[in-house]
């Protein structure tokens, strides 16, 4: 992927993520959010509960966030750090985010790493199904 396309895509995804959080944490008064995968299949997706987990983290409820979806910690960290990283790169013209992306892509293409990451996602998915999220 080209650097400019990566920065644009990441910026758009962050914007969509923040819009989703703002909607669900301030406007949506129901206890659950809408998961299209769950609506269609009747089972939760691997990321079900992430929005509620981030809400729990924002309010200092670490164990609730972990129980809801451990991916909440990673998603919140990325949503806080990536905008700063993108802006710093664009202002300094360093492209460090793009270079890190390329290194991460190569790292994740290694079979043991890919298998481990897939196993973690599947394990989280099984846990979400078991919890009945």
Summarize the structure.
The protein is 77% helix and 0% strand.
Describe this structure in words.
This protein has 133 residues and is mainly α. It is built from seven helices and no strands. The protein has helices at 3-27, 36-41, 50-58, 62-68, 71-92, 96-108, 111-131. Helix 1 (3-27) crosses helix 5 (71-92). The longest helix has 25 residues, at 3-27. 11% of the residues are buried.
Order of helices and strands: HHHHHHH
**What does the radius of gyration come to?**
17 Å
Helix content: over 70%
**Strand-pairing-aware structural class:** mainly alpha
Q: Main β-sheet: number of strands, strand sense, barrel status?
A: none
Q: What is the residue-averaged pLDDT?
A: 89
- The low-confidence runs, each spanning 5 or more residues with pLDDT under 50, are none
Count the helices. How many? 7
Strand content: under 5%
Count of β-strands: 0
- N- to C-terminal separation? 35 Å
Shape verdict: globular
Which terms summarize this structure?
single chain, 133 residues, mainly alpha, 0% strand
Question: What's the structural blueprint in terms of helices and strands?
Answer:
Blueprint: H1 3-27, H2 36-41, H3 50-58, H4 62-68, H5 71-92, H6 96-108, H7 111-131
Helix pairs in contact: 1-5, 3-4, 3-5
């Amino acid at each position: 992927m080209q650097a400019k396309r990566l920065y644009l895509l990441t910026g758009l995804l962050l914007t969509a993520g923040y819009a989703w959080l703002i909607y669900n944490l301030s406007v949506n008064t129901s206890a659950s959010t809408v998961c299209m995968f769950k609506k269609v299949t009747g089972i939760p997706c691997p990321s079900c509960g992430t929005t509620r987990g981030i809400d729990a983290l924002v309010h200092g409820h670490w164990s609730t966030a972990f129980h809801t979806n451990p991916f909440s910690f990673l998603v919140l960290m990325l949503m806080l750090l990536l905008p700063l990283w993108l802006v710093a790169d664009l202002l300094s013209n360093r492209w460090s985010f793009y270079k890190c992306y390329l290194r991460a892509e190569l790292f994740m293409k290694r079979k043991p790493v890919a298998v481990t990451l897939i196993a973690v996602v599947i394990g989280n998915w099984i846990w979400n199904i078991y919890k009945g999220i």
